[in-house]
Design a protein that fits this description.
The protein is built from 17 helices and no strands. It is mainly alpha-helical and 370 residues long. The chain has a domain of 168 residues. Helix 9 runs parallel beside helix 11 and helix 10 packs parallel to helix 12. It is elongated and about 85 Å long.
């Protein structure tokens, strides 16, 4: 028999013996995995092949024991990781082996591509924890495994990134990370997956923001916090993708406004969230107070336009956002008013307001800020 056949028959025999001894389904799967890995080693299979055989044997044993599809995938991942550890593979390799085995088991039982990715992420995180990985490393491993499983299962590029973010957030939550850390882990994993899949920097930033917002929502955060998380993640992804500070601020604004919309916030709140996120990104990028205010105004106006607000309302939103950003950046009240007026005029011009109306909008915004 081939080495693979030797490993599988060894696993099957061990599972049967374990069952005859009254062991639980989980114990039967573990016994199958250990036996398959040992048989693979005796047959001179590589450590990677041993881990794969262990995963398959464990999933088959779990199925025979009547365990659920989810439990079969978990058993496969655990067995593969244990085999990889016995073969002195690194913690990263153990997590990768677990994810691959879990995804294969999930596919074997007919789970959806999304479920396959989730199973891979969960298995990788669990393996990482056993291998002594930090909570951040566990989240990263989960995201990487989920993205790989999603790609193998034929998910679209954007869905691969979303699956990565979701898996990382779940791993972070299980590891006891804070809601903010969960959102950050989700955004980082999603942007990494998006970059690996060849998405543009803008797409990487948006999928990072979306994933962070979803993780934040899952953690029970408010709409405002979800929008903030989206903006931070988008800016970070943009920085990693070598976007300029201006582009990072723009991406942060768009991501925040989309998150605010998903959270059911009003059009006005969406514009405010966009402005605040863009300003925060600009500040992180060491842009001047004036540039922070300009970024806030531009982002708020764009968000207001996106939701269909009138040109006058777009200008007002830009002015309010610029003034708020200026205040945070330490501007004097006069500078805040000036920034509001400038932003409102620029937004009005972009929205097609007549010259006189641009001036009126600028004055109104400055007065409101003052």
């Amino acid at each position: 028999m081939t080495p693979q056949q030797q490993a599988l028959v060894a696993g099957s025999s061990a599972a049967l013996a374990s069952a005859a001894a009254g062991a639980s389904g989980e114990a039967q799967a573990t016994a199958a995995g250990v036996a398959a890995a040992a048989a693979g080693a005796a047959a001179n299979m590589t450590t990677q092949q041993q881990a794969e055989a262990a995963g398959v044997a464990a999933s088959l044993a779990a199925a025979s024991a009547g365990m659920t599809s989810q439990q079969q995938a978990e058993a496969a991942g655990a067995a593969a990781a244990a085999s990889a550890a016995m073969g002195n593979m690194t913690a990263v390799q153990q997590a990768e082996a677990a994810g691959t085995a879990a995804a294969a088991a999930a596919a074997l039982v007919g789970l959806t591509p999304q479920a396959q990715a989730a199973a891979a992420g969960a298995a990788a995180a669990a393996a990482g924890a056993v291998a002594g990985m930090t909570t951040q490393q566990q989240a990263d491993a989960a995201g990487s495994a989920a993205a790989a499983a999603g790609a193998s299962a034929g998910l679209a590029v954007q869905d691969q990134a979303i699956a990565a973010g979701s898996a990382a957030a779940t791993a972070a939550a299980l590891a006891g990370m804070t809601p903010e850390q969960q959102a950050s882990a989700a955004g980082s994993a999603a942007s990494t997956a998006a970059a690996a899949a060849g998405m543009t920097p803008q797409q990487q930033a948006l999928v990072a923001g979306s994933s962070a917002a979803l993780a934040s929502a899952a953690a029970g955060a408010s709409g405002e916090v979800q929008a903030t998380a989206a903006g931070v993640a988008a800016a970070a992804a943009g920085a990693a993708a070598n976007m300029t500070t201006q582009q990072q601020a723009e991406a942060a604004g768009v991501a925040a406004s989309l998150a605010a919309a998903s959270a059911g916030m009003t059009s006005q709140q969406q514009a405010e969230a966009a402005g605040a996120a863009a300003a925060a990104s600009a500040a992180m990028g060491n842009m001047t107070a004036v540039q922070q205010a300009e970024a806030a105004g531009t982002a708020a106006a764009a968000a207001a336009a996106l939701v269909g607000l009138t040109p006058q309302a777009q200008a007002a939103a830009a002015g309010a956002a610029a003034a708020a950003a200026g205040a945070v950046a330490g501007m004097t009240t006069q500078q805040q008013a000036d920034a509001a007026g400038s932003a409102a005029a620029a937004a009005g011009a972009s929205a097609g307001l007549a010259v006189q109306d641009q001036a009126i909008a600028a004055g109104s915004a400055a007065a409101t800020a003052a």
